[in-house]
Each structure stands twice: as structure tokens, then as C-alpha cells.
Amino acid sequence: MKRTTIILMVLSAILPVFAQSSSIMNESNSGLVYALPLTELSIEVELEKTIQKPGVFYRYSERYLAVTDVITEEKTFYTLKSITIKPRPVPDASKTYFIDPQKKSPLRFISVNPNGLLCGVNVPLPSKLPENSIPPAKKKSSEETVDRNVLPLGEEYMLVGSVAKLAEGAAKQIYRIRESRLSLLTGDVDHFPADGASFTTILKELDKKEKELTELFIGSTTKEIQKQTLSLQPHEALKNEVLFRLSTLKGLVPADDLGGAPYYISVLPANINAPAENKQKSSGEYLNYIIPAPTQVSISDGKNIYFSQQFLMPQFGVVIRMPAEWLKSSDTKVFIDPATGRLLSIQE
User: Distance between CA atoms of 120 and 338, rounded to whole angstroms?
Assistant: First the structure.
């Protein structure tokens, strides 16, 4: 009981160091602490937000432009674009170990990264851990305020103040722009642009102006891409568990919000059989590593599969003990993958 209390005190003193710096621990420490990883799933959901707004002259679209398919009320709705998953190793609290190596033990030089994850024995640390990707900022929709500058109308229209009269003037401007564009394309103009660049610029300006005026009748549609990231640390197999819900009006909503359509996640690990030698009790010093389990991760809405990929996930694998006597000398190098906890190689 007394020894257990001492070990817990040492653990509490050493673990905070992991978050500050990487190190190669040696026998000068009172003990060595390292952790094996578990895979955290970083799930990025990409949505498209569509905003529709009616034009101020939508009631006159059929009269002046002979158009009936117009936006008559303001709407906002969301659609799913894609789902991606990136695995991220984090220390597994249930697989954190303390060893107290002897003076000449080959395990007295173990390497851990800044998160405390085991990298190996007598091996250099990675120069830099991969940085977590920062989700891009939400793209703001470029909504344009329609004012009277969009309507290059004469005095006869601007002084009347009638919406119907303004709509008539805007429609006439649209037709003039179309006639001007047709004249340019057919070469039926008095002063043709001097070069191709000028010709292209004039056409673009005409198209832009026509679009602005036409939107006063048919309405405008703006779209923006939004990305939201969910984190999941599965500790057991999952089959068709609700991950999130998607509301057409609100976008991504929690799994318990019945106002959205459910999206399901399945995490199905393969069975891993422990090697025969692992079932025997090891005496003396040893190092733990993992045989990670191939795990199929998929996300669907019950009909369509939006993501499906296999990952090596250590939390569903088997922990293997490597006795210190396996290392023939104190210079033997052992390489451990900090992302999965698996043994990569042993170099004499």
C-alpha cells in the first residue's frame, strides 16, 4: 500500500511535464512514465448555406421580363457537402505506465513526445509534432445592398416614386444592356474596342450590370461554405449510433435534437488475438507496446454512405509486453509508432 502511494505521487509529479516538452528520460529520474495512444476521430462536416432573397420588383417580373420562376420570400437552408475524418493520437489514461529501471537496464533511455506518448528506446524524437489543422474561417456571404445607384434612371422615373414605374425603368435598362451586348458581339457599333482586353472588360461590365438589375426582379441567391468539427474518442465498437443531426433550417444540430435528420456512425474493429507469449506473466522490467486493431469507420444517413475508411486504432488492440532481456545491449534501438503504439523495428 505504501509503495502504491509513492508511485501515485511520482505519477502526479511527472505527467504534467509531458505537455511542456519532449524528453529522453534516463536513470537520473526517480522513475519513468510513458503513455500509449488511443485514436481520437476528428470529424469535419462541410455544409453549404444558401440564402435566397426576393428582389424589390419581384411582383413585376412577369409583366416586364416575362419571368415567372422568381424568389418571392426570404429563405435560408443548409445542405451537406462532404464529411472527412482525420485520426489524432492522444494519451490513453488507461494505458499509462511507470517503470523504475535498474542502473544498467536497456530501458533506462526511453523517448516520449510532448504528449507523453512512447516513441521508443534509444531513439531520437521527431523534430516537430504535426500541428493540428485550424478549421478555416467561415466564408461570409457577399450580400450586396441594392440602392438607387443600381438604377441609372432618368428624372422621369426617379421623381415619380412609384414602385411600378421604377420597375419599368429597370426593365428598360436591362433591355438596353442586352442590345448593347448584342451590338458588340456582332460588331454593329460606331466605336469598337481597341483590343481584346478592352472588349472583354466591357462585356464583363455589361454582364455585371444586367445581373444586378435582373436580381431586382428574380431575387438573389448567395452561398457560403461552413465547416464544423466534431471530436469522438470511441472506447467500444459502435454500430449505427447517431453522431449528429442535420436541420435544413438550422444546419448542424446535436444528436438529441429531433428537428434534424440523423447521421449515423459505425466503428467496427477487427478481432485481435494476443500472441501466446503475451499470455504468460513477464518478470522483471518490460516495455509495453500495442498491436492496433484494423477498424472500419463509416458515416451514413441510413441510405447513403458519406464516409468509409479503415484506421489502425490502438484502443481496440492488444497490449504486448517486451521484456528488457529481449534487448541485447543498452544501445539497442526500439522504434514505436506514437500514433498507434505499434512496434516498428528493433535495431541492434
Answer: 9
Query: How crowded is residue 24: how many other Cβ atoms within 10 Å of its Cβ?
Result: 15
**pLDDT one-digit tens code per residue, 294-334:** 999 999 999 999 999 999 999 999 999 888 777 777 778 88
SS3 of residue 100 by DSSP:
coil
Sign of the torsion angle spanned by Cα atoms 330, 335, 338, 344: negative
Show the cell assigned to 290: 500495442
* pTM of structure: 0.73
Neighbouring-strand partners of residue 224: 49
DSSP-based three-state secondary structure for 92:
strand
C-alpha cell at 168: 419599368
**Domain spans of the chain, in order of start:** 2-47+81-138+224-347, 53-77+140-221
CB atoms within 10 A of CB 298: 18
Q: Which of 265, 264, 280, 273 has its CA nearest to residue 316?
A: 273
